[in-house]
Amino acid sequence: MAEQLAGLADDRALLGRTSTAERVADILRSRIAEGYFPPGTRLAEDSIGGALGVSRNTLREAFRLLTHERLLVHELNRGVFVRVLTVEDVEDIYRTRTLVECAVVRGLGEPPYALEGLRASVVEGQLAAVENDWKKLGTANIHFHRELVALAASARTDELMRSVFAELRLAFHLVDEPRRLHEPYLQRNRQILQALEAGDKAGAERLLTTYLDDSLERVVEAYRRRVGEDRALRSTQ
Asked: What share of the chain is helix, strand, coil (3-state, %, to 5)?
């Protein structure tokens, strides 16, 4: 045991660096999700490290964590970039969402359910729509699904879906018609909430399954159009 403890003591210094790197990763993840760093943006080590007041090693560790989450990509001799998703990536994200979110609803116990977070996200979306802030509405929609996943009361599931939702935002940021993309789902969020308030988890799951199928079709359509336009523009330059 003494030998093992000595080994752990040697690793003590790693705790501070790892903790700091994780906090930096949290900051960058949030900024990426908010569109502060759009897909395709090169993340300059010197500028970001200086702004956050962290060492290059800490920043590189944060980049590594976010690369593992598929939010960043390292290109040899070019640097680190915010990832640009493919259509296949988008389809896989929705496949994961359907598996997890529907399983959460299906696995709920007996009502009543703790729906305060879902109600708050619906109100958040309603206010965003009144303000004609469609990107904010997209954020509210993601908050709704995050709160839906939280009904499982599983830290592992929350952590998994945190990365999935952040990755989904990379696709949303390339869509040039956010109102058309997000507005139809405000009412559908409310319908899912109402089904759960009534204790009808089977009905909520049916609504959610159709919701995700329709959302995938809409996002892929918009994404294909935007990516195609970007490629056409680059070919003329």
From this structure: 75, 5, 20
Percent of the chain clearing pLDDT 70 (strictly above): 88
The DSSP code for 7 is H
| Residue 74, beta-bridge partner list | 80
Q: Would you say the C-alpha torsion 86, 92, 97, 102 has a positive or negative sign?
A: positive
CA–CA separation, 149 and 50 (whole Å): 36
CA dihedral 38, 135, 179, 104 (to 10 degrees): 100
Give the span between the Cα atoms of 136 and 33, in whole angstroms.
12
Q: Locate all alpha helices (DSSP H) within 112-237, ordered by sequence.
A: 116-130, 134-150, 155-172, 178-182, 184-197, 201-236
What is the C-alpha to C-alpha distance for residues 180 and 53, in angstroms, rounded to an integer?
A: 40
φ/ψ of residue 228, rounded to 5: -65, -40
- On whether the pTM is more than 0.90, the answer is no
